[in-house]
Design goal:
heterodimer, A: alpha+beta, six-stranded mixed β-sheet, 9 helices, about 35% strand, B: mainly alpha, 13 helices, flat
Chain lengths: ~375, ~280
């Protein structure tokens, strides 16, 4: 267990800044997920933590001691890879023993530690097999076992579930969550899958273009996204975005002239404002009503327990609205979309930054 | 429908085999001719070159000449030693250079790779005079090392070219895992990467071995002394200006095939094993 501090970390390949001033405090025992689209720099950040890649500038410290100059094997970290990266010529036991042998542990201790990890991950029956004789899920368990035996200060996971099929993914995800509970170790986990991030993380760091977009609990990120990028990246299906015609102190006007009783506390109101609303915060009606948006059904996606209805507004903007699967809509049907005001987010369209929203009570009454 | 497809498949298979067999016959015919005629009398070689040796024409004079005259066992050993040592050095240094080129990012990496690959296109024989001078200056003329060094230089470009392609395919996660587990760069190279590119090593070995074994030029120029003569050079004693001792030449050639055949079988088995081991996910 240890905390890890990253301060003003930069990484550039040639002229390109892959990581652009990263500052991050990872608490002891925390499960931190680095989330972002491919190419956002999340894997590079993890590889720099591991010492596999050199930083261009900045510092990394574990428990206050800088590790930036240390080789990977001296950093007391363990890493689990997407491709498992098991040594193909060694048995499961050999894979788990290697790091301890390199660190010159006594034979008895190696035996104890390997046996303990094997028991914890239920690998006992597989100890003498070669990696090629294991299934994907088993291989990843061995890779995790190999990380545990060394009793590292920090665990690093580099998209460990990406190579597994959907059914196994859920199962191994659960194992990782249980592992974190049992070891209460500091873990840093890289993924592009928001389901993994939301279910596993104590805190999520959303990265894009080498910059941290937002750090927060899964709930923070979902309910109060700091900017347009986080708003669009978290949540499935994506948040809907509508351009506002005009935002005044106590109302917001959409492009189709619909007025919403929303106020905001910004001292200077920006001219370009984007309204964001999740599919679950829209309600479809057959009849028109106050502040309802007129729309036409484009497509219905039936998922069994829920249905997503894609609609096109009069302005040509498209929205997705979640609906009870009992109701069926046909393409071309006329509907009216009510926006649940508590679910409305406002963003400065120029900077992408979140703006505070409150519902103007007097007008809703 | 299913039957006709199966039949068509069988026809296609048959066709492929006919083509392959034809090619095998064409390729093997000269070798067979050498083997047959090395066992016949001189007259029979010229009168009926395609006939199998009969009780009348059977004559092992070629083999007895080869084995009695001169130092053929020594020539054999020289060829084997030079080829074997060159192969070892080519594979070792080729793999090391390929690892460095594919694994480490350093200034001039690509340029270096290109420079190494240039050797594939420029025949080393163009530099014979320079090489000879160098060998004279270093007092290496008429030693095995003169040949081994030249053959190593000759084989390296192709080896580096092929191996660096294969090295870059080896999972970088695996190397990273090794580094985190505290393996040295040498261990990563020797214990993780080399076993995974065994098929490529076998390919390089086969490609490099044959020109070295068959070479006449450099043994003639750099090591013509009796104690360093290779098999191909040794066999030249039977080639005269006006008449050739065909029995002996054919026998020497037949004998020269054997080690190559053994080495080739060895490497090709490695090659197949490497391809089927399924070491990488």
């Amino acid at each position: 267990m240890a905390n890890l501090k990253i301060s003003s970390l930069y990484k550039s390949f040639g002229a390109e800044n892959v990581l652009d001033g990263i500052n991050l405090d990872i608490q002891s025992g925390e499960f931190l997920v680095l989330l972002g689209p491919s190419g956002c720099g999340k894997s590079t950040l993890l590889r720099i933590m591991a010492g596999l890649e050199d930083e261009s500038a900045g510092d990394i410290a574990i428990e206050g001691k800088s590790i930036a100059h240390l080789p990977p094997s001296k950093r007391e970290i363990a890493m689990v890879f997407q491709t498992y990266a098991l040594y193909p010529h060694l048995s499961v036991r050999g894979n788990m023993e290697l790091v301890l042998k390199q660190a010159r542990y006594s034979k008895a201790e190696i035996k104890d530690r390997v046996a303990e990890s094997a028991r914890a991950l239920e690998l006992d029956a597989l100890m003498d097999r070669k990696p090629s004789q294991l299934s994907g899920g088993q291989r990843q368990r061995v890779a995790i076992g190999r990380a545990i035996v060394r009793d590292p200060k920090i665990f690093l996971f580099d998209e460990p579930l990406s190579n597994l099929d959907a059914a196994l993914r859920g199962q191994v995800r659960l194992e990782i969550a249980r592992l974190h509970q049992r070891l209460s170790a500091t873990m840093v986990y890289v993924t592009h899958d928001q389901v993994e991030a939301m279910t596993l993380a104590d805190r999520i760091v959303v990265l894009n273009d080498g910059k941290i977009q937002q750090v927060g609990t899964p709930r923070d990120l979902y309910e109060r996204p700091a900017n347009l990028f986080v708003a669009s990246f978290i949540g499935s299906p994506n948040m809907n975005f509508l351009q506002l015609e005009k935002l005044s102190e106590n109302s917001a006007q959409l492009k189709d002239r619909t007025l919403l009783p929303i106020s905001n506390k910004a001292s200077v109101i920006p001219t370009n404002v984007t309204l964001g609303i999740r599919p679950s915060h829209g309600i479809l009606h057959d009849e028109a009503g106050e502040s309802y948006l007129k729309a036409e059904v484009l497509l219905e996606e039936y998922l069994g327990d829920t249905t997503y209805v894609h609609v096109e507004l009069e302005t040509g903007e498209q929205m997705v609205v979640r609906e009870d699967p009992e109701i069926t809509r046909r393409t071309g049907d006329q509907v009216y979309v009510e926006l649940t005001l508590s679910g409305v987010h406002l963003f400065n369209a120029d900077t992408g930054k979140r703006m505070d929203v409150s519902i103007s009570e007097q007008e809703t009454a | 429908m299913a039957i006709s497809r199966a039949r068509r498949n069988r026809m296609a298979e048959l066709g492929a085999h006919v083509i392959l067999l034809t090619f095998a016959v064409i390729a093997l015919f000269p070798v067979l001719l050498i083997l047959i005629n090395s066992l016949k009398t001189k007259k029979a070689i010229f009168r009926k070159p395609l006939e199998l040796p009969t009780s009348e024409t059977l004559d092992l004079v070629g083999y007895s000449t080869v084995l009695q005259q001169g130092n053929f066992p020594l020539y054999f050993w020289n060829s084997l030693f030079v080829t074997g040592a060159s192969l070892c050095l080519i594979l070792l240094f080729g793999a090391m250079a390929a690892f460095a080129l594919s694994e480490y990012k350093f200034r001039g990496n690509r340029l270096m790779g290109l420079y190494m690959a240039l050797g594939i296109m420029i025949p080393i024989r163009l530099g014979t005079v320079g090489i000879l001078r160098l060998m004279v200056a270093t007092d290496l003329v008429n030693t095995h090392w003169a040949l081994i060094l030249v053959y190593t230089a000759q084989g390296l470009p192709l080896a580096i070219f092929i191996l660096s392609e294969f090295m870059s395919i080896v999972s970088s996660d695996l190397k990273s895992a090794g580094r985190i587990d505290g393996l040295s760069e040498y261990s990563i190279f020797l214990r993780l990467v080399l076993p995974l590119i065994r098929p490529a090593m076998a390919t390089v070995a086969v490609f490099s071995m044959i020109p070295i074994w068959n070479d006449l030029w450099f043994p003639l120029v750099l090591a013509p002394a009796e104690h360093t003569k290779t098999l191909t050079l040794g066999a030249q004693v039977f080639v005269g200006q006006y008449s050739n001792n065909w029995n002996a030449i054919l026998a020497a050639m037949a004998l020269a095939v054997i080690p190559v055949l053994i080495l080739y079988t060895l490497f090709s088995r490695q090659l197949i094993r490497g391809l089927t081991s399924g070491a990488v996910k």
